[in-house]
Amino acid sequence: MRSNWMILPLLTMAAVVAANAQQPTKVGVLNIQAAIANTQDGKKAAADLESKYAPRRKEVESDQSAINSLKDQLQKGQNTMSETAKAQLIRDIDDKTKRLNRKMEDAQADLQQDQQKALQTIGQKMMVVIDKYAKDHGYTLLIDVSSQQTPVLFAASDIDVTKAIVDLYDKNTTDSATSSVSPAPTAPAQSKPAQHTPSPVAKPK
Asked: For 93, which of 78, 85, 111, 153 is 20 to 30 Å away at the CA?
């Protein structure tokens, strides 16, 4: 599994902010999928998923290698193996292939579930950042263009706020983490008790 978040399901969001009816309309575009992928939280979530599913990926690769080995064995023994042995080998290949397919389906379902959880968690915080950015910069409309079904056919690069949203998200996350860590209280100084040096014990004569 690649850590590239292009494998993640598309998360469609649009933040609409009515700044002031008297002000000129200000429109911007952003790619929510790319924004989530490029935040520090997004990169960490991708790395965590990669680490979590690496053992299962290796297990699948090992099973696939074993099946390929059996297929090679069957092909090489077409003219020398008995019909009984060939039939048994074909059954083994079929059984192992079915188990591998189920294993891959289960792993894919679990992966998608974990991806959705990560997207939901980051997406909720991302929407707060988008709302703040839009209000602070006077945007009337911000459009998500990450979906292939977006009606936007063209957008000038100078109205793309994706990087600005990522930067603001990371800054807010860093600031929140810093403010949540309060310095440990300093313990009041205490006078040390006078140390008593024990008298040497006289050795028995």
From this structure: 111
